[in-house]
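Handout, section 3.2

Students often ask what a structure token actually looks like in practice. Rather than define it abstractly, here is a full record for Ecto-NOX disulfide-thiol exchanger 2-like. The first block is the sequence as you would receive it.
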Amino acid sequence: MGIRREEEMEMSDDDMEDAPESKDSDDSGPLAQVEALKEENDSLRCQLDAYRNEVELLKQEQGKAQPQRSEEDTTRQQQLSFLQQALQGMQKQLLKLREDLKQRETELEKNSEEKQQLESQIQSLKDRIQAFPTSHALPLETAEREDRGGDESTNHSSEATSAVVSCSQEKENLPEKGLPSPVKSEREALLVGIISTFLHVHPFGASIEYICSYLQRLDTKISTTEVETLLRRLPCTFKQELTGVGASLEKRWKFCGFEGIKTV
């Protein structure tokens, strides 16, 4: 019995010792959890601060990058506006060149038409000048043939007619001897016809240089003095007028044959 009591006492003592240990273990469990939670909270705070710092850094970097991009955008917009202005200027120049080209084409067509008209008129004048002596020689040849094939009566009549013709020719030659003709050669007569045709196409007149430049296309030996002296010798056919004011004053020759024929 005594042994049992001792054993029970030992067991009770052991139980008493185990009881505070279990209490200590029970008390230390929540504290450890709290400490662990505190540590976890601290680590989370540190992570949050780190994230905040990263966010601030990213914001700063974006803020620095945006002005650079805005500057690049402005420079690109300026370059684009400059290019658009240059393109518009080139388009305007192109339109102006097209208009000038059209005007020159119309002027060229007009000049070519005038040239064709002048050439046709010159050719007709040449044909008339070449046919002029032959037209006068034909009646004389026919008269000679009639004289050869006719009898004496016809010979007398032909002699009478020839005498009348010779008398009429002498009468026609008398004023020519009294008043010498201003046109001295067939070449000058041809020049007068060409110049008259040229000035008739140019009703507002033309300078002596312009007239000579056209005539020199037909004959390079023609000089300005020759043409001017010829024009001055024919005041009833050509007249000189001054056009313009001040520095733009210019001497131009005009065709006045339609007016001059009334005074001759």
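Discussion prompt for tutorial groups: The beta strands are 238-243, 250-255. How would you have guessed this from the sequence alone?
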